[in-house]
Specification:
mainly beta; 8-stranded antiparallel β-sheet; 1 helix; 6-stranded antiparallel β-sheet
């Protein structure tokens, strides 16, 4: 209420004052306003963020307030300047007509903007700074540099800062304590060294151009050259240098003291070429010279030439001439460029006649060095024929062979002016069979079109000299014939071709177990699939090598002519053999590995934690360092030991039996480190016997066909756990190989067959023969010997018929070993049989014989006391007159 009363009182005071002013105006004491216009307020913001206020359309003092909380401030006159202290942003201003800021007369706003600083790096690596919305003067500092004053908004050309990243900061006051704004700039690395380029033009003028350099520069050509100034980056049209190479240096100073770049240029030597044409005119060509240039022939006039050549110079007599080139008009000797020499030949020789034969056997005649009509005759019986012009074309009808042609100057063919010959070559036909079994035909020296027939096929036309890709002919021999006319009635030539057999596919397994494929008589591009589920794989060319990754066994492979493996053209198969790995323990406890049927390069691992080790060749020897006991070893075909091919085991204590006969055997202990003892545990329990120092123990007096078990121990009582155990079975059979051979052994001479009886033992189910050993002395060869088992006639005691032919598996010092397989190797118990030896025609062998016939073998087995011979290949047998028996050994197993 107090505020309202005050405002009402003030209003009455104001109304009274207004009335008084009106009365004074009437009385002439105070002028009245011309109009009742409203006051207006203007706010101006300066770069130092100070503000000026100005009021218009208002008389007398006034007051203002900035923002609603601002102080009511008096103003004398129509403006106030330099108002400071307002933050960034937009501010409201009100003008009042009284000191209490109660009567508002005008309003406005002003905005204090944020200062911004721009840093610009110039091409000369100097820096320009521009401050917007800031004071003047203002101050800046670059990095931790000096505080520097700036009048106005910009400072330019600041220098001396190293390449890299820099910060520049603007301040409002000296001392750089009143932060305004900052900016960043990057000084680039210095420009690369200046380079100088020299360009030589055809007129021998030179242009120089410099790069990576600012401002004027100077150059010198050759060490004696003048130091010359250049404005800009190039200079053109430098002249006056002789042919040869010249050095150029560029400098940054007028004394040519500071070199900044160098290069060279070469003024080529001008050359002049003079060419005499068939019409005895001359062409001149200047290389590496100016344009225009000037020439003189001999002492003739000096003639200008634009470009590098002038053609068709006429009028020079036969003989030798010199042409000289000059750089300037007048052909002055001081401006000589080069010269050339030419020879104008004597006038044309007599007329010449040329004959040209075409593929269709037509002939063209052309005469030279003759003007006007002429006539010709071909062969002495030919017609005298007129020709207008210098040629006639398309003469037909001449058979293969050489023909003479004469040219005449008269219609009676009486004045001969030229002569020549031409040859009609016989047509030839070439037939080429392509890899896809199609045929190409090419006709040489024949017409176009021409016609061909293959065999008795249809007559087909050909345009040009060849036809390609003829299909559909069966494998075998074919004739292709070419003809000159449709209907194939005018024979030209023939050719023969052979269509090969259909494609064949061969699969080869390599020693490294990879597979190679070869396609014969097939297309160049083909595809294959291994096994029915395999991938369809492209095979350019006829061979595919090094196919890997297939397991042991037989695999099928098919070849196709398409990328989808739909059209099969050939088939094959291959077998990956199973590899065998053998581990042998030596007496020094080292181990040898042998891989049979595997790749040449392979890897092995001993025990599953062992190292994957490379093995070149089929054997690895002297592997050391393994503890006693059993060990597993595996062979692989790859260096990562991923693809397994074979496996084996070895025990560093290995007891083995070898040399097993009907009554003897040898036991060998591998890997002992001291004395050892041996004991038989089956079929009987023997005594504990010390083993030999070489870890080998010979057994004798064994029973044929018995099962034996022996154990090796490390103690003399054979009480500890056995080191190793070995079991073996002595074979059954009979033999007398230990007997002394006698003279007069039976021979296969003259084709004789030799037989000796033997009898089997008493095993109820009979026996199966596995091996026979026969001592033989080759008389004239080491092969072509045959051993059979024959049945025996009980009543005549002679061989009856062959039961089986044994396989010769090798010989050692004349003791041949034969193996037996098949049903004929099964023999009955207690039955007599014969061994029969024979040889191929022309080969003579002696079967060792003995007179004593002391034999060892299984119970019931025996060897007959004498041998029987046949001189007619087994048809008639005669017993030996002497008491002699052949030597042999038979090994069998009870059935």
């Amino acid at each position: 209420m107090k505020l309202q009363s005050a405002f009402s009182a003030a209003r009455w005071v104001w109304l009274a004052a207004a009335l008084l002013l009106a009365l004074l105006a009437v009385a002439g004491f105070y002028p009245s306003p011309t109009s009742a216009s409203s006051a207006s307020l203007t706010a101006t913001v300066h770069g130092d963020k100070s503000v000026d206020l100005a009021v218009s359309n208002h008389q007398g003092n006034w007051w203002f307030r900035i923002n609603s909380w601002g102080t009511c401030t008096a103003v004398t006159g129509n403006s106030i300047t330099g108002i400071q202290g307002y933050k960034l942003g937009t501010h409201s201003v009100w003008a009042y007509s009284n000191s209490s800021c109660g009567a508002q007369i005008a309003t406005t706003t002003f905005t204090i903007s944020a200062a911004s600083l721009a840093a610009t790096v110039n091409s000369d690596r100097s820096v320009d700074l521009t401050l917007s919305n800031g004071p003047s003067p203002w101050y800046f500092r670059i990095g931790i540099g000096a505080c520097t004053a700036v009048s106005g908004t910009t400072i330019s050309g600041i220098r001396g800062y190293a390449p890299g990243y820099h910060e520049v900061t603007a301040f409002a006051t000296a001392g750089c304590t009143d932060f305004l704004v900052d900016a960043y700039f990057v000084i680039p690395d210095p420009p690369p060294p200046a380079t100088l380029t020299a360009t030589v033009h055809g007129d021998k003028s030179v242009d120089l151009a410099i790069s990576n350099h600012q401002g004027n520069w100077w150059f010198r050509i050759n060490s004696w050259g003048t130091c010359t100034a250049v404005t800009g980056n190039n200079i053109t049209g430098i002249r006056g240098y002789n042919p040869g190479t010249h050095s150029v240096w560029a400098y940054s100073d007028s004394n040519c003291g500071t070199q900044i770049a160098t290069t060279t240029f070469t003024i080529p030597t001008a050359t002049l070429t003079a060419t005499v044409n068939s019409d005895r005119s001359v062409d001149l060509t200047l290389s590496n010279g100016p344009s225009p240039w000037y020439f003189r022939i001999g002492i003739g006039s000096c003639t200008a030439v634009t470009g590098n050549s002038i053609n068709g110079i006429q009028g020079y007599a036969p003989g030798y001439h010199e042409a000289s080139a000059f750089a300037t008009a007048g052909c002055a000797g001081t401006d000589f460029l080069t010269d050339a020499y030419f020879v104008i030949p004597d006038p044309p020789p007599p007329a010449t006649l040329t004959a040209t034969v075409h593929g269709d056997k037509s002939v063209d005649l052309a005469i030279s060095n003759h003007t006007g009509n002429w006539w010709f005759k071909i062969n002495w019986w030919g017609t005298c024929t007129a020709v207008t012009g210098n040629s006639i074309t398309g003469i037909q009808g001449y058979k293969p062979g050489t023909h003479s042609v004469w040219a005449y100057s008269d219609s009676n063919c009486g004045d001969q002016i030229a002569a020549t010959t031409f040859t009609i070559s016989a047509a030839s036909l070439d037939a080429t069979v392509n890899s896809d079994r199609s045929v190409d035909l090419t006709l040489s020296n024949g017409p176009s079109p021409w016609y061909f027939r293959i065999g008795i096929g249809s007559c087909t036309t050909v345009t040009g000299n060849s036809i390609t890709g003829i299909q559909g002919y069966a494998p075998g021999y074919h004739e292709a014939t070419a003809f000159a006319t449709a209907g194939c009635t005018d024979f030209l030539a023939d050719a023969y071709f052979v269509i090969p057999d259909p494609p064949t596919l061969t699969a080869t397994v390599n020693t490294d177990r990879s597979v190679g494929l070869n396609l014969s008589n097939g297309p160049s591009n083909w595809w294959f699939r291994i096994n029915s589920w395999g991938t369809c794989t492209a095979a350019p060319g006829n061979t595919v090598s090094n196919i890997q990754g297939y397991q042991p066994g037989t695999h099928s492979v098919d070849a196709y002519s398409d990328s989808g493996c739909h059209t099969k053209i050939a088939s094959s198969s291959f077998t990956i053999s199973a590899a065998t790995l053998t581990a042998t323990v030596n007496t020094d406890r080292s181990v040898d590995l042998t891989l049979t049927g595997g790749p040449n390069n392979w890897w092995f691992r001993i025990n599953w934690w062992g190292t994957c080790t490379a093995a070149s060749g089929n054997t690895v020897s002297n592997i050391q360092g393994y503890q006693p006991g059993a060990h597993a070893v595996a062979a692989y075909s790859d260096g990562g030991c991923n693809y397994h091919v074979a496996a084996a085991t070895f025990d560093l204590y290995s007891l083995s039996a070898s040399g097993i006969t009907h009554t003897t055997a040898t036991l060998t202990l591998t890997g002992p480190f001291g004395d050892w003892w041996l004991k038989e545990t089956a079929p009987n329990t023997g005594t504990c016997t010390a083993g030999e120092a070489d870890y080998s123990h010979a057994l004798s007096s064994l029973t044929s066909g018995a099962d034996y078990t022996y154990k090796a121990y490390s103690d003399s009582a054979c009480a500890t756990t056995a080191l190793q155990t070995v079991s073996f079975t002595t074979p059954v059979g009979v033999g007398n190989l230990s007997e002394t051979s006698t003279q007069g052994s039976p021979s296969t001479s003259g084709g004789a067959w030799i037989a000796n009886a033997f009898t089997t033992g008493s095993n109820t189910n009979g026996y199966t023969v596995s091996e026979v050993t026969v001592p033989i002395s080759p008389g004239n060869g080491s092969g072509n010997v045959t051993l059979r088992i024959f049945s025996k006639n009980i009543s005549t005691a002679k061989p009856v018929s062959s039961l089986v032919t044994l396989t010769n598996t090798g010989d050692a010092a004349g003791a041949y070993t034969f193996s037996c397989s098949g049903a004929g190797c099964d023999l009955s118990a207690g039955t007599g049989y014969f061994l029969v030896l024979s040889a191929a025609t022309g080969y003579n062998y002696r079967w060792a014989a003995t007179a004593s016939n002391n034999q060892t073998g299984s119970v019931g087995w025996s060897i007959g006391d004498t041998y029987t011979a046949s001189l007619d290949s087994g048809s008639s047998w005669t017993p030996d007159a002497n008491v002699r028996v052949t030597k042999f050994s038979i090994t069998a197993a009870p059935k």
